[in-house]
Write the structure tokens for this entry.
Amino acid sequence: MNIKGKIVTLRAIEAADLPTLHEWGNDPELWSMLGGWHFPTSLHQTQQWFEGLARDPLNQRFAIDVPGTGLVGTANLVDIDWKNNNAFHGMMIGDPSMRGKGVGVDVIMAAMRYAFDELHLRRLDGSMIAYNEASVGVYCGKCGWQVEGRQRDWYFRGGRYWDRIVVGVTSDDYRALVAANGYWEP
């Protein structure tokens, strides 16, 4: 099953996507904007990661596909907690020509609709590096998420420490956003 947005389709990651994902996975400029520890990866390591996706039901990863363009990034719902009905959401727009064009908003809205309306989750969490103001603005400015905390000196990038901004959204926040904006029927 694909998850449709107004612009994007969130779909399963396929073997044909691996060369592009491998390229993005080794792009230091791209990864400087994302959390997590990162090492150079080989195409073989990317293949091993891909093979493990099917065996990991608590961590769902999606290709972001734009009609006429194809693969432009990845999104996820990870650390799914079925007892407490929450998960962590993140995304990466790997194709720089697709940034600032509404793709990120569409990905977040599609992921929330899927998480809240299909999976019946209650909340989603996320985080970003403090200097990634574009991500904070998209999540908290346009998509109804709230800044819920700041963890000081969490990330080490460019020779210094940066805070981690912790964000979250509930299904009620999502529904209020949709109701207020007449937003969201793909």
Notes: The radius of gyration is 16 Å. Residues 144 and 177 are 6 Å apart (CA to CA).
